[in-house]
Amino acid sequence: MATRENLIIIGNGMVGHHLVEQLIEAGALARLEVTVFGEERHRAYDRVHLSEYFTGRNAESLALCDADYYAQHGVTLRSGEKVTEIDRAAKTVVTASGRYAFDHLVLATGSYPFVPPIEGRERPGCLVYRTLDDLDAIRDAAQSATNGVVVGGGLLGLEAANALRGLNLDTAVVEFAPRLMPMQVDREGGELLKEKIESLGLQVLTERATQRIEQGEQSRLRMVFQDGKVLETDLIVFSAGIRPQDALARECGLEIGERGGVVIDDHCRTSDPAILAVGEVALWNQSIFGLVAPGYQMAKVAVSTLTGGDARFGGADMSTKLKLLGVDVGAIGDAHGERTPGARMFRYLDPLTQVYRKLVVSSDGKKLLGAMLVGDNGVYDTLLQYYANALELPAEPASLILPRQSGAAPALGADALPASAMICSCHNVTKGVICEAIDAGARDLASVKGATRASTGCGGCATLLKSVVDHELAAQGVEVDRSLCEHFAHTRQGLYDIVRVEGIKTFGELMEKHGNTGHGLGCDICKPTVSSILASCFNEPIMDAAHVPLQDTNDTFMANMQKNGTYSVVPRIAGGEITPEKLVVLGQVAQKFELYTKVTGGQRIDLFGARLEDLPAIWGELIAAGFETGHAYGKSLRTVKSCVGSTWCRFGVQDSVGMAIKLEHRYKGLRAPHKIKFGVSGCTRECAEAQSKDIGIIATENGWNLYVCGNGGMRPRHAELFATDLDDEALYRTIDRFLMFYVRTADRLQRTATWRENLEGGLDYLKAVILEDSLGLGDELERQMQTLIERYECEWANALSDPEKLKRFRSFVNDERPDPSIIMTTERGQLRPA
Amino acid sequence: MSATAAASNTMPAVRWQPLCRRADLVAFSGVVAWLETSAAQVALFYLPGHTPELYALDHFDPFSNAYVIGRGIVGDLDGAPVIASPLYKQHFRLSDGLCLEDENVRLRTWPVRFDGDRVVIEA
Predict the structure, then answer these.
(1) Among A214, A289, A542, A596, which lies 20 to 30 A Cα-Cα from A36?
(2) Backbone dihedral angles phi then psi of residue B29, each to the nearest 5 degrees
């Protein structure tokens, strides 16, 4: 191999890393010896999702490659080694550890956060939001803080505000301009955004110029504004924009733009042809591109330049969609309508649902020049395609931004897009490239992503990519197999509809009419699923002879099998409220049958180690004392957790225990695709942790706020606010509809959180169906729930009254002896499996 | 019976013996019987209308080390009747006890049949 030339890359951010990847992919390492200097101690990480650092991700999970990726490919990575000087004459770069010679140099130094020259900005507690180290500093400062301020109400400022909120600080945003996100939205959009963000409990102060920062009285710091007003806070995060990190280039005499940035040509060359620049440090045609996608495009061009190619950078589309603090914001093209004379605008503003959409179209109404969205990015993908591919607009362009119910134009189908349509701008993947991947054998979304890297950058194109892939696969006759199991070529939802419409009441009948063979036995997938569907439709006792063979052991014996073959018993303790008398009974039963006792997360008491043959006697005593089954064994309503509420608590505004008990009794026994948990809190302090439940209810001065589709467990998810200030009756009605709709449409073993994430149309669709009755199903769902509620009976009480059913509760059908294999030992004063 | 005679040459006391009654069984599901002569726990699965309609397998689940097989769900996979363990969900073929997820594991099986209303097992 010939001697390789030295290529030094300064900067190991997203663009710098992409450059290395592109070099490797292009086979350029055969001729180039690559050394990368990163000022930060971490190797390249995903800065777009930086705020997730506070919601569970760490430096390793944010990293863009495996730790040994560079070494594996023979690239030297020097993290935590800052370049202090570029010596152009000697063609070397200087760091604290030495001098390094280069033949080619690429600047990928990115940008640094701009801190306005405010007196007192160096005080402890004044921070910035850019790197992982910055986030560590914010987290440290937040530990002893109760509130925080973000200076800057742009995109990054709102991200930072979200991070502070995630750290449980009372958060305020201070913006110099008259509105939030002045670059992306206009006055109306800004107003709406402000309202939305304030409704999340954040304070928004616009048109506020900070004059100085001094020692605070109640808090650590005090901000004094130009108008003399003051704001006290424990910490301040400056997020007032970014500036190109061009210091090295300045010092070595490269051409710099008037307002900063290293000037580059179409080949990403600086004024010194041996030096290239890419990403946010580069100034092309008087513009800095502060998004990752144009940076990636520059990296591609730089690789071409370095390997003798002729690719050119020709600017980039700065259209963007974001979710900031849970609020959708989208801007496409000339969103303000300032760049084209004669541009016309359409505006749609819904103050109730807080949605704002604006279209900027050409004077003849045929082409989309730009668009602005606040509150709902649902139409972003469609609009972007009209814009990017210069497609002709429908005769009535307004139909694109009107609500769907009023006869608006349908989303632009994947088939309407030309092959040149850009689907993923991060990785420059067009519809044509995706079709090629499918032609080459990719048969699902994952393999298309693997082959093209589409949707692996910012992820903004995920929905669009899925629709393109689905459409192309369908067009090629590839069917996506969604069969429940080998016995039924239907989804759970499909089987549910069949059972309901045809009134099928047994598994055998369903197998005969709709099974793949007509006489199969079924399996451990379809049998419990069908059992659950039958229960959701007809609510017959699960111990009835026809249903017995369908059940999991837990449903068969109405108790939870533990690892040694014994069972645990959980009586219902609605809302977690229990009388002293009943509490005593639980203790007595546990003593008598030698059960281990533990308090559960759902505010009940679990009795472990029950032998199969003891279950009926245990339940006999529990039912005599007024208990009923708790369905801890079923895919059904489990618990409604509550705090003590207004009855005892000085902060409570409603009777949360009373509501929890009413709800638990209303929905007990409801069988569903998976278990369902509720929480009811008596005030906004949320002691019942309702926002981590499938159904969360939080008391307000005026009634109840309803949250849906939360989850704890393996993948925690906060419930989303669904309806506000409901009275008791409206609350029941809404939950009736919501639960029945979930039961009808969810997949097998799909919790509400996953169901919601997979629901096309998302929360807005769900709100339309449940709150606005857009499908006209409301009455039917309520009636169906009412029938199930009326048919409720305690399964244990039913079983105890039937000697035939009790026959199953024997260890051996031919012998009275208990199972001799169960051996217990003692730990902390209780029995446990040996 | 020549089969019994041949077996008795190598193993003592192998014979058909009554275990329980037909009414003790649960159709398309499992029950468990105590086999006194071997001090074993036998899971019995009853598939009326199928051939054969009765199976006897070890109640012991080697994956969980607990006696739970008789409380699993009966089904068929690729046409072969199986029982799914209620704890870790492995499938065992009813005909020979083979574990479909791990071919090194096989549950003990016994010949079993009806004798009138009685279930008899060869053990």
Answers:
(1) A289
(2) -150, -175
What is the strand order of the sheet B73-77 is part of?
B73-77, B80-84, B91-93
Q: In this complex, do A821 and B20 lie within 8 Å of one another by their Cβ atoms?
A: no
Per residue in A333-360, pLDDT tens?
888 888 888 888 898 888 888 889 999 9
Q: Which residues of A touch B67 (CB under 8 A)?
A: 565, 819, 821
The chain A residue lying nearest B76, using CA atoms, is: A521
Binary contact (A549, B78; C-beta < 8 A): no
What pLDDT does A634 receive? 93
Asked whether the beta carbons of A602 and A571 are under 8 A apart, the reply is no
Q: Is the peptide bond before B52 cis (omega within 30 degrees of 0)?
A: yes
Strand A830-833 and strand A824-827: pairing? antiparallel
- E strand or H helix that includes residue A295: helix A292-306
A698-713: average pLDDT: 93
Does the pLDDT of residue A413 top 90, yes or no? no
Report the DSSP pairing between strands A275-277 and A104-107: parallel
Instruction: With CA atoms as reference, report the closest residue to A116 among A220, A204, A243, A231.
Output: A243
| A36-40, A243-247, A324-328, A814-818: least confident range | A324-328
- The structure tokens listed for A674 are 């998976």
User: In the beta sheet, which residues pair with residue B77?
Assistant: B80
Alpha helices (runs of H) in A503-607, residue ranges in sequence order: 507-514, 526-538, 553-557, 580-592
Q: Which residues contact A467 (CB under 8 A, 6 or more apart)?
A: A413, A414
B32 Cα to chain A: minimum distance (Å)? 5
Of A254-263, A332-341, A698-707, A819-828, minimum mean pLDDT range: A332-341
Banded model confidence at residue A479, pLDDT cuts 50, 70, 90: low
Q: Is the Cβ–Cβ distance between A472 and A414 less than 8 Å?
A: yes
pLDDT digits (tens, 9 = 90+) for A281-316: 999 999 999 888 899 999 999 999 999 999 999 888
pLDDT digits (tens, 9 = 90+) for B49-88: 999 999 999 999 999 999 999 999 999 998 899 999 999 8
ipTM (interface predicted TM): 0.88
Contact (CB<8Å) A814/B41: no
Whether the CB-CB separation of A785 and A637 falls below 8 Å is answered with no
DSSP string for A454-522: TTSSS-TTHHHHHHHHHHHHHHTTPPP---SBTTBSS-HHHHHHHHHHHT--SHHHHHHHHSSSSS---
Closest of B43, B41, B34 to residue B85, by C-alpha? B43
Domains of chain B, first to last: 16-122 (2.102.10.10)
- Name B2's Cβ contacts closer than 8 Å, sequence gap at least 6: none
Please tell me if residue B89 touches chain A, with a CB cutoff of 8 Å.
yes
The torsion defined by the Cα of A250, A256, A260 and A261, in degrees rounded to 10, comes to -100
Cβ of residue B68 closer than 8 Å to a chain A Cβ: yes
**Phi and psi, residue A174, nearest 5°:** -115, 120
Question: Which residues on chain A are in Cβ contact (under 8 Å) with B112?
Answer: none
Cα B51 from Cα A642, distance rounded (Å): 54
**Running DSSP on this structure, what letter comes out for residue A180?**
S
Please report residues of B whose CB lies closer than 8 A to that of A812.
32-34, 41
CA separation for the pair A113, A244 (Å, rounded): 9
Q: Which residue of A has its CA nearest to B23?
A: A813
Q: What are phi and psi of A11, to 5 degrees?
A: 120, 125
pLDDT at A663 over 80: yes
Minimum CA–CA partner of B86 in chain A: A553
Nearest-5° Cα angle at A347, A345 to A350: 175
Q: Across the strands, what pairs with B83? A: B74, B92
